[in-house]
């Protein structure tokens, strides 16, 4: 018989049962095929959080219908019931916004003895979804502008203005680019009604048009890259959740309100709080998902370029992921099936000459996360190019950009085997010309010949001279150097043939004319750069002189004020001394007099002494 003691141990297997079964002994574990329906549509296999769901307004019947009718009516006269309804909704919006930011409720809103738990990310998410649902039913302008919700959110996310984001201490990125980008944004929605009309009340509540515009003009470089430390992480986390909830619940109607805050979301990626970083990434992802294709080139891409200048690597990764998301969004559906995606792909393809110079330096960043995101974004952006001839060679070109010393020749061999049939536009040239320019500088003459053949083939199919004009200074001098310095006649002939084809593509009749035009353009560019530098120095000198004059005037005023204060102190001291002397004299006279305070003699008690009084005097 087996004995059971204190040291007896048993091992049991934990069996997972189906929801309909209650731990039957013979139940088998079903074969699980994990399918993640929460993967991001931006590509890369990254998981995204589930959509935010309202808690208080999960049912539309719980919404304040009378207030909705009031705001929908747009009537100027308010009855007593309408005013009460507006007050109720104002209090409701204020409470929801406080819950979203994690601010504790007013102690007079409920019983003083009622316990209050600390705000969690789940509570802030539900409050943000409730507030977004209220915006969807009442109206964006009514909630965001009339009740100053957007102004309070901007005060939390960008207290110093949008011109101060992406700044650092050494002054390499002073935020000037953000001023230029913000000036391109159409602010009609900030003064318009819910229907998008630009006939708002203009009552001074427009924070973008007033406070932020002032900060844009007076923006300075802030020393702390994690801007917003004066606000709590809970408040920033709640604001980001609310912006994300607007994108998910309201949809494209909220695009004019949330798109200008993309820069703030990207900068919050460098926060020390994990919740804030994740919320910033999710909010930026939600904005890219609903943004209009025609807004990418003027509003989205310039902000992403400015974010790439940030010293924080997480900001760079977020910006690169958003660019990757844009590119994947434009190529996710089959061609010619989705009109917005066709427009987005065309916009990104046209922007490739500006995208590639900004993304290429990120391939050699010291952080491996940045290099990985840059490679993925660069590959996705190059795939938006509509030229089918170079599509098979794009992976080799990207590899050559990442490893120029070892993989450049492989990419050139791929291009040499390519038959160019389609028209070569500016986006195609922006992909090919950097690799070809690097190949022309190779030591081996045979590699230079391959580059000359590729340049000749693609130059015959160039769309317009304007498309190849930006790349002429990159290729023409190198081809001229190969044609003059290489000792093999066959390679010199190939260089001359490529130079002639490229010259004709540039719209010139001869090579000398092309070189003169390039040198002239280069001279004009250098002269313009010199004038710009001189103008900046002159502005700095004028500003320095103005500051010196202001400082001298301030010193003069301070000196005059100190002199006046010294004179005042001297006069006050003299007056005090005179008062003390007068009081001393009065005390001395009172000490010598025989009459008291009432004026009577202290000997006989009379006002006029008798002859018999000791103090009688003639």
Question: Quick summary of this structure?
Answer:
By secondary structure, the chain is an all-alpha fold.
Task: Describe the protein.
There is one protein chain. Helices cover 59% and strands 0% of the residues. It has 24 helices and no strands.
Sequence-ordered SSE layout with sheet pairings:
Blueprint (H helix, E strand, L loop, with lengths): L64 H9 L6 H21 L20 H18 L1 H7 L2 H9 L18 H9 L23 H10 L15 H18 L4 H4 L3 H6 L6 H17 L5 H12 L5 H19 L7 H12 L1 H8 L8 H15 L11 H9 L1 H13 L9 H15 L4 H15 L5 H4 L3 H14 L3 H17 L5 H82 L26
Helix pairs in contact: 2-3, 3-4, 3-8, 6-12, 8-11, 11-13, 12-13, 13-14, 13-16, 15-16, 16-17, 17-18, 18-19, 18-20, 19-20, 19-22, 20-23, 22-23, 22-24
Strand segment count: 0
Largest sheet: none
Distance between the termini: 143 Å
Mean pLDDT: 75
The low-pLDDT segments are 19-45, 70-77, 168-172, 183-228
Cα Rg:
38 Å
Shape: elongated
- The H-and-E topology, N to C, reads as HHHHHHHHHHHHHHHHHHHHHHHH
By secondary-structure content and strand pairing, the structural class works out as mainly alpha
Residue fraction in strands = under 5%
H/I helix tally: 24
Helix content: 55-70%
């Amino acid at each position: 018989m087996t004995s059971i003691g204190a040291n007896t141990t048993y091992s049991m297997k934990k069996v997972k049962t189906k929801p309909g079964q209650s731990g039957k002994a013979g139940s088998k574990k079903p074969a699980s095929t994990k399918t993640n329906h929460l993967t991001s549509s931006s590509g890369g296999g990254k998981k995204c959080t589930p959509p935010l769901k309202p808690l208080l307004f999960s049912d539309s019947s719980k919404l304040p219908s009378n207030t909705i009718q009031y705001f929908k009516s747009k009537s100027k006269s308010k009855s007593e019931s309408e005013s009460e309804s507006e007050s109720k909704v104002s209090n409701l919006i204020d409470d929801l916004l406080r819950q979203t930011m994690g601010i504790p409720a007013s102690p007079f809103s409920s019983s003083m003895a009622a316990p209050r738990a600390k705000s969690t990310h789940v509570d802030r998410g539900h409050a943000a979804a409730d507030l977004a649902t209220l915006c969807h039913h009442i109206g964006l302008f009514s909630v965001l502008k009339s009740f100053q919700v957007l102004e309070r959110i901007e005060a939390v996310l960008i207290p110093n203005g949008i011109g101060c984001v992406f700044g650092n201490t050494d002054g390499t990125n002073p935020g000037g680019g953000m001023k230029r980008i913000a000036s391109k944004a159409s602010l009609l929605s900030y003064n318009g009604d819910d229907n998008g009309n630009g006939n708002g009340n203009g009552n001074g509540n427009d924070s973008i048009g007033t406070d932020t515009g002032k900060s844009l003009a007076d923006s300075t470089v802030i020393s702390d890259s994690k801007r917003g430390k004066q606000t709590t992480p809970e408040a920033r986390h709640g604001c980001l959740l609310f912006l994300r909830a607007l994108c998910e619940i309201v949809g494209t109607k909220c695009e004019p309100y949330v798109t200008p805050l993309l820069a703030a979301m990207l900068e919050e990626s460098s926060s020390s709080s994990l919740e804030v970083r994740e919320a910033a990434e999710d909010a930026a992802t939600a904005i890219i998902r609903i943004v209009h294709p025609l807004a990418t080139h003027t509003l989205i891409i310039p902000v992403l370029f400015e974010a790439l200048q940030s010293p924080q690597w997480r900001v760079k990764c977020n910006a690169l992921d958003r660019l990757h998301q844009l590119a994947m969004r434009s190529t996710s559906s089959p061609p010619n099936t989705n009109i917005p995606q066709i427009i987005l792909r065309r916009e990104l393809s046209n922007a490739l000459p500006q995208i590639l110079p900004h993304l290429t330096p990120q391939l050699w960043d010291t952080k491996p996360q940045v290099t990985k995101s840059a490679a993925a974004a660069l590959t996705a952006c190059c795939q938006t190019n509509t030229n089918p001839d170079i599509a098979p060679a794009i992976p080799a070109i990207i590899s050559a950009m990442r490893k120029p010393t070892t993989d450049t020749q492989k990419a050139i061999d791929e291009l040499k085997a390519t038959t160019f049939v389609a028209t070569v536009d500016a986006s195609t040239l922006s992909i090919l010309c950097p690799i070809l320019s690097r190949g022309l500088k190779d030591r081996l003459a045979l590699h230079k010949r391959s580059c000359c053949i590729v340049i000749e083939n693609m130059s015959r199919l160039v769309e317009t001279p304007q498309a190849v004009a930006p790349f002429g200074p990159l290729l023409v001098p190198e081809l001229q150097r190969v044609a003059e310095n290489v000792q093999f006649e066959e390679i010199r002939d190939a260089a001359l043939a490529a130079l002639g084809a490229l010259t004709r593509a540039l719209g010139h009749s001869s090579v000398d004319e092309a070189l003169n035009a390039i040198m002239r353009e280069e001279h004009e560019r250098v002269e313009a750069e010199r004038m710009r530098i001189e103008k900046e120095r002159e502005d700095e000198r004028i500003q320095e002189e103005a500051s010196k004059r202001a400082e001298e005037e301030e010193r003069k005023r301070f000196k005059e004020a100190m002199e006046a204060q010294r004179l005042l102190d001297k006069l006050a001291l003299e007056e005090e001394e005179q008062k003390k002397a007068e009081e001393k004299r009065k005390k001395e006279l009172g000490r010598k007099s025989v009459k008291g305070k009432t004026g009577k003699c202290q000997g006989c008690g009379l006002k006029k002494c008798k002859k018999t009084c000791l103090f009688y005097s003639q």
